[in-house]
Amino acid sequence: MKNITYIFSLLAVVLLAACGNSQIDVDRVKPVVVTEPVNYDTDDPAIWVNKEDPSKSLIIGTDKNEDGALFVFDLDGKIIKNKTVSGLKRPNNVDLVQGAVFANDTLDFAVTGERLTHKLRVFSLPDMKPIDGGGIPVYVGETALEHRDLMGIALYKRPSDNAVFVIMGRKTGPTDGTYLWQYKLGLNDMGDVTATLVRKFGKYSGIKEIEAIAVDHELGYIYYSDEGVGVRKYYADPEKGNEELALFATTGFRDDHEGISIYDTGNGSGFILVSDQQANAFHVFKREGSVGDKHQHELVKVVKVSTRESDGSEISNVAFNDTFKKGIFVAMSDNKTFQYYRVEDILDIRDQ
Known about the structure:
This is 3-phytase. A four-stranded antiparallel beta sheet has the order 1-24-23-22. The chain has a single domain (31-346), classed as TolB, C-terminal domain (Neuraminidase, 6 Propeller), CATH 2.120.10.30. Helix content is 9%, strand content 44%. A hairpin with a 4-residue loop joins strand 19 and strand 20. By secondary structure, the protein is mainly β.
């Protein structure tokens, strides 16, 4: 009798555990598309919008390895092999710009950083051909260990004159307010992109590292994750100075602050999504700030997702197709994939 009682008790524990796991599963938002896997280690995505036919837009994602790549996917998560760029030396993050104007040339292009060569790499879109002369050295003159090992990257197109800048981070760096370096991009006579250093800025706690960087082009702000501390905010225009405008998202994270994405709902409003990496969740903040203080970003909600240990993410408000009518949210997962979510499953925008 005691054995039977024990068996039933054990079964009850197992069933309760199963129900508990099921409840956790139910609470997590599921993707509608999971990409084909890359070779080594996904890290960060970017979204290229096909203006003529949004259903033919592209997702570009990094495969982080010494034999790494920029993988290109369609909206069904299939790898487009003839666009994928292989042989990159540990690319971490990727970003892109559309409609960059250089004299008589208008370009779409993607940028990534090779950690092992300390070079910025640039590829035209949508064909993914190199336009960087083999790579642009950055953080030149830095000699301390890992101070040139590229990590985060973001592009900023200034609305007033369409000037394009790249903001770059590294594995580690100084705590004197010069962690990030910003370069103005140009085009030489050979048709290759060039980069000129315009400023060094950005506080760093020295606790972990800075990887995730995002730019709000319309409002003109840079956001970056100081892992284990919070999200820091600065002006994107180097002519507006190096004052830190805000430090938010300082509580409620399990461990690392990671990928940052900005969703535009119009008129300067929207949401800032920040990855709570070890919790497999995203914290959502008000893009426009609070009443009376545009730099006070209040927490709206926390969204549990199916991605695992998400480093990088990106979001768009474009109506791509019948699946992604209000936009797409793309997040890296540590099983070598990227996951695509409907924006309305992540954010409260169904009636907007």
